[in-house]
Design a protein that fits this description.
Chain lengths: 784, 266
């Protein structure tokens, strides 16, 4: 493998440009004749547009044009789509209202675009946008799930009566009812999963250019999946056929899911670039990010678990309401269904599960996948329920989990997923040891003597990554296949370019993908470049989300590498006058095994390209491509244990310790994996104690800036104790599982379980702010 | 941000003249309140008069029982000043927990006091220590300076030049931060003055901005100790109720922070 191969803690290649300010983000792109877009946005959560006055704005200095929602409809730009079809219990298709890129008649959330000013500078565009007068007739708004499903609630879309998008189910209702009828104990919990704002460091941006001579568009955009963007823009939004549209996602400063989707702003930028004949740039600011980036989570759930007299789980029944906001975003429908309910078996052997999910429209920003996407909601619900059960049944929470762990693999759950491998006892044992679980009662007593309330909380999570195979997701309603592609180009002098359909927006692919090549060929990673994020360079790709880039993206590279190596071995054998079966690759050389005969990779490559002396019938060149479609999802799993101390005077939570033991299969670069886990844990802790997107009853986002939306800071989180156990994933050639979302999935339940343990009151919602924790303590004291 | 005219004044007189001459002109010191609202186009002063570099407004003077901090002195300079640390360590501590390092390098005491943000820290110190706000026109006692949210006794074209603190026998400050903004969710400054007077002021809690808390002052007058506050109840009348804390939570925080401030004061 060498010092830079798989498993090596190699420093990230890309960081030099990032930390020296030489990254190239969308907003860094400046084109000749470029103009600037500024959107006029709705201040109302729900209103009819009764008129728009544009003349004053059009007369402002530097204004090229002011365009409206009616014009984008008249020009037959397609409405935004939702790409995953979900059917209700009764077999009916999900009920969706149209989402035009700018509202022609009705606005349904605060921040929805109504018109756009195109001007010579950003400031002039903003000045003119203030001069656009939109007349609204306000309509009653529904700002949360309960309001939306109430009798007589204001209706968002005539297509969706009662504001219900779908009423979906999974599992065996009859078997589950039977399990509950036999139960010795039933444990119930009701909870919300708080709405989050993704807040990637780089706000979304787009630069669009139209070349009328070639009828060709170029879009530079902050995307996690530029090929999917091109596909959707072409096939559904009528912007241009695919061969007339290039989409480039250059350096992108974080996504967390929010940059998967195609948003109105980039559609408008493309359309406006053709309409005005000038390149158009739009760069969102933080305020726009708060109200237009797809939000995450926002569930209201009730869950019940049935146990036998021996505390074995018999059945699980869940009903969840999921808030979709005002429109169905690109993959929103799949998040609370196939990415959520299919994970409700957790790490446990639960014979019967039945779950209903009701998708609800509200007058709020659309909701879609956000780091973990459905799986954090599943883990939080299940792990709080199990912890609650342990308290009610008066058994040790670790032992209750252990008693119900799945130990035989493969394991078919009652909710579609077939777990391929895992060792849940191993990660729980390691976590209990790392946190000194046995010593906790003594620590709790000592803290109490010092006036502090100490608590410990567990969370044993499992998730499904890769978001593949294509055939499986297709059968569940996905509108696309979810494989990945790769191309390996060996240049004539032996350096290598890897073209991948994965997209790096912080994950470190330029390093880890190069490590795979270094591992196989025994060459340094600086001999390898990773090319991604440009539809003109990479043939096709599905992009990066669902912790899929290692399991799916790197597996495609693996396959392409095998093809390149096979051809290179043939060339080497021919040059060395040996049998290709005797050729081995070591330290960048092709050697005849058992001899000192060898030829270096650059000489093999040169031979391939000069083609002076190749085996008979062999094509020149050394370049291969591959598509890889996995046989199953991957199933990262682990145990998190959190120990907290709560200040009884203020309700403030401090972290004493946080242990994370993950099984990600094989690690490519442990340092990057640790970074991913740190980031995920911080987001999970952020959801647990800090972050909350709050709408008032009129549909105004109260937490629309960092003054009110609490993002985690370094001093809010502890120093993490991270370790790994390993079962190799049998579903891909590298044995990898994916590590990008685990922290965000598993952390929040551990934190809340610890805080509720500390204060002795289980009725606590996220985020457990000092105010909420203090009130829960007051209620508990009053009850005692 | 709308366009604005920037002026850098080199003296107090020049600054006041520029303000009088300008259109909807504003003093600019550290800029931590003004610039963010200008960037959001919520404020649009025609002229900005930068007073942060006026020599007469920078520095700290110790004389006898008085510590005078000039208006444009930065938080960073205040928290590291030997006289501040020796004479009123509670002010050094308050400053060290105000904002973050970037804020402390640029923010000024005069800017904070003139803005009178309801969650700012210095107003609590000024009120509890019975300090005097000195302006280019007059001297204003603390009890007459703060007039409600973002409101002060300052008149048009009046500029704070310094704050004069009587050195107390004991003083302490404790605060609970707002988890999002990191401003004071509630902060309490307690002081036992050399005159024997006991004063306690809370910031972040009241709908009217910084306020004295008589129930705490009375209890501490009888017995200067944290435990003296165990039995008191702070009323939540007029306290802020928002997404970060209910009014009864803030009432509790006033008591708890006062206790911690007394402990810190010794």
């Amino acid at each position: 493998m060498g010092i830079e191969g798989i498993g090596a803690r190699v420093a990230r290649k890309e960081d030099r440009r990032f930390i020296t300010g030489r990254g190239r983000y969308v907003d860094d792109i400046k084109l000749q004749g470029m103009t600037y877009a500024h959107f006029v946005r709705s201040p109302h959560a729900h209103a009819k547009i009764t008129g728009i006055e544009l003349d004053a704005a059009k007369a402002m200095p530097g204004v090229i044009d002011v365009l409206t929602g009616q014009q984008i409809v008249d020009d037959k730009v397609g409405n935004l789509i939702c790409g995953w079809a979900i059917h209700s219990k009764d077999g009916s298709a999900m009920k969706m209202g149209a989402w035009p890129a700018m509202a022609p008649e009705t606005v349904r959330f605060v921040g929805q675009a109504v018109a756009v000013v195109i001007a010579e500078s950003k400031n002039l565009a903003r000045d003119a946008a203030e001069a656009v007068v939109v007349h609204y007739e306000e309509l009653p708004a529904v700002a949360n799930i309960k309001a939306a499903i109430a009798d007589g609630a204001a209706q968002l879309h005539p297509e969706a009566p009662g504001n219900i998008v779908y009423d979906w189910e999974i599992g065996d209702q009859k078997a589950t009812d039977e399990a509950f009828s036999k139960a010795a104990n039933v444990v119930t919990i009701e909870l919300t999963n708080n709405r989050l704002v993704p807040n990637a460091m780089e706000p979304r941006a787009a630069v669009a250019e139209y070349n009328p001579a070639e009828e060709h568009f170029t879009l530079y955009t902050t995307s996690q999946n530029p090929h999917v963007a091109r596909l959707v823009l072409s096939a559904f939004y009528n912007i241009a056929p695919e061969h007339k549209l290039r989409v480039v996602a250059p350096d992108v400063g974080g996504g967390f899911g929010s940059k998967i989707f195609i948003y109105p702003e980039e559609m408008v930028a493309l359309w406006a670039s053709k309409k005005t004949g000038r390149p158009v740039k739009w760069t969102g600011d933080r305020n726009e990010a708060f109200v237009t980036d797809a939000h995450g989570r926002d569930h209201l759930s009730k869950a019940e678990m049935a146990f036998d007299a021996d505390n074995k789980m018999l059945g699980l029944r869940v009903k969840t309401y999921a808030n979709f906001g005002a429109y169905m975003s690109l993959f929103s429908s799949s998040v609370p269904t196939y990415l959520y309910a299919t994970l409700l078996s957790g790490q446990y052997n639960i014979p019967a599960i039945y779950t209903e999910v009701v998708g609800v429209y509200t007058n709020t920003t659309p909701v879609d996948a956000y780091r973990g996407a459905g799986r954090p909601e599943a883990c939080y619900l299940l792990e709080r329920l199990v912890e609650t059960a342990a308290r009610q049944l008066k058994v040790d929470p670790a032992e209750l989990r252990r008693k119900n762990f799945i130990t035989q693999f493969p394991h078919q759950t009652p909710v579609i997923m077939a777990y391929d491998t895992g060792d849940f006892n191993a990660s729980l044992d390691a976590a209990l040891k790392a946190i000194d679980y046995a010593g906790f009662p003594a620590r709790k007593a000592k803290a109490k003597s010092e006036g502090k309330l100490r608590g410990i909380g567990l969370s044993c999570y499992i998730e499904a990554c890769g978001i593949a195979p294509s055939k499986a997701v297709g059968s569940l309603g996905a509108g696309v296949g979810l494989w990945e592609s790769a191309e390996v180009r060996v240049n004539p002098v032996g350096t290598i370019e890897i073209l991948t359909g994965s997209h790096s927006h912080g994950q470190g692919h330029e390093t880890t993908f190069a490590q795979l090549v270094a591992d196989r060929l025994g060459i340094p990673i600086n001999q390898v470049s990773i090319v991604h994020g440009d539809t003109d360079k990479v043939q096709f790709g599905m992009g990066t989300y669902g912790s899929r880039s290692a399991a799916v993206g790197m597996s495609a590279i693996f396959k392409a590498m095998e093809k390149v190596e096979a051809k290179a071995k043939k060339i080497a054998a021919h040059q060395l006058e040996a049998s290709e079966n005797d050729i081995v690759i070591e330290n960048g050389e092709f050697k005849v095994t058992g001899t000192d005969k060898a030829i270096a990779l650059p000489m093999v490559a040169l031979a391939a390209y000069t083609a002076h002396n190749l085996p008979d019938g062999m094509e020149p060149g050394l370049k291969e491509s591959a598509f890889y479609d996995p046989t199953n999802f991957t199933f990262p799993a682990g145990s998190y244990i959190c120990e907290v101390e709560v200040d009884p005077g203020t309700g403030k939570t401090s972290f004493v310790n946080f242990v994370a033991v993950d099984d990600f299969g094989r690690l490519i670069n442990p340092m990057i994996v640790e970074g991913q886990v740190h980031g995920g844990l911080v987001q999970g802790i952020g959801q647990a104690i800090l972050e909350n997107a709050i709408y008032d009853d009129s549909g105004q986002l109260v937490t629309a800036s960092f003054m009110d939306y609490a993002m985690p800071r370094a001093d809010d989180v502890p120093s993490f104790q991270i370790s790994h156990t390993t079962t190799l994933c049998p579903g891909n050639p590298l044995g990898v599982k994916g590590c990008g979302e685990a922290g965000a999935i598993g952390a929040s339940a551990a934190v809340i379980n610890a805080i509720t343990d500390a204060i002795g009151n289980n009725r606590l919602e996220m985020p457990a702010t000092p105010d909420r924790v203090w009130h829960a303590m007051q209620l508990q004291q009053a009850a005692e | 941000m709308y366009s604005t005219n920037y002026h850098r004044a080199s003296s107090v007189d020049e600054a006041v003249a520029l303000i009088a001459k300008g259109s909807d002109a504003k003093f600019l010191a550290g800029g931590h309140t003004l610039l963010p609202v200008m960037k959001q186009r919520l404020a649009a002063p025609g002229d900005l008069v930068d007073i942060a570099k006026i020599p007469a407004l920078i520095g700290i003077e110790a004389s006898g029982d008085t510590l005078t901090i000039k208006a444009a002195t930065t938080y960073y300079d205040i928290m590291h000043n030997a006289d501040v640390k020796r004479m009123i360590p509670a002010i050094a501590h308050l400053t060290s927990v105000l904002g973050d390092p970037a804020v402390r390098y640029r923010g000024t005491i005069g800017g904070s006091v003139a803005t009178n943000d309801p969650a700012a820290d210095y107003p609590a110190a000024i009120l509890a220590l019975n300090a005097t706000v000195k302006t280019n026109k007059r001297e204003i006692p603390a009890d007459q300076f703060f007039k409600g949210l973002f409101m002060t006794a300052l008149e048009d074209n009046e500029m704070i030049t310094a704050i004069s603190f009587p050195v107390p026998e004991k003083a302490g400050y404790a605060k609970m931060r707002n988890p999002a903004s990191r401003f004071a969710l509630t902060g309490v400054f307690v002081a036992k003055l050399k005159s024997g007077e006991i004063r306690a002021a809370a910031t972040g809690a009241s709908q009217d901005g910084v306020m004295r808390v008589p129930v705490i002052e009375d209890a501490l007058k009888a017995n200067w100790s944290a435990s003296a506050l165990d039995g008191i109840k702070v009323s939540d009348d007029g306290l802020i109720e928002d997404i970060h804390g209910t009014s009864d939570y803030r009432a509790n925080l006033i008591k708890v922070m006062a206790q911690r401030a007394v402990q810190a004061a010794g």
